[in-house]
Amino acid sequence: MRARAAAEERRIEPRLESTWRDMHTTSLPHWNLSTISHKIFETEKGLHDVRFELNSEAGLLDAPDLLWEQALAERLYDQVVAHFDVRRRTSLLNERLSHSMDYLQMLSEHVRHKYSRAGGDGG
């Protein structure tokens, strides 16, 4: 359980950092608005994929059906999940993903506004 949470964090954290770096460099003056808009779209798709992966595995935190008839084993399973704080760690990753998605939405709105002011020529 702890290994799974740590693996998720090791997989997601670099992607989030990379996303932030990429978004900060997309404002380079030689990129046109169409290119920036496409980059934002691709990044949003990637973050949605990460969120799906994170949350689809979060359902695995519930005690497996096999343990339902074994009260002691089920309680031990729940204690292990609590001990390694897996739910909180998953929640924190979800919060970071939400913040990144909000940031991308803001950038997308800004690009859309600039694009409409530029007459749709992407420059």
Automatic annotation (TrEMBL):
It comes from the Eukaryota. Residues 34-94 form the DUF155 domain. Pfam families: DUF155 (PF02582). InterPro entries: DUF155, RMD1/Sad1-interacting. PANTHER family: REQUIRED FOR MEIOTIC NUCLEAR DIVISION PROTEIN 1 HOMOLOG (PTHR16255). Belongs to the RMD1/sif2 family. This is DUF155 domain-containing protein.
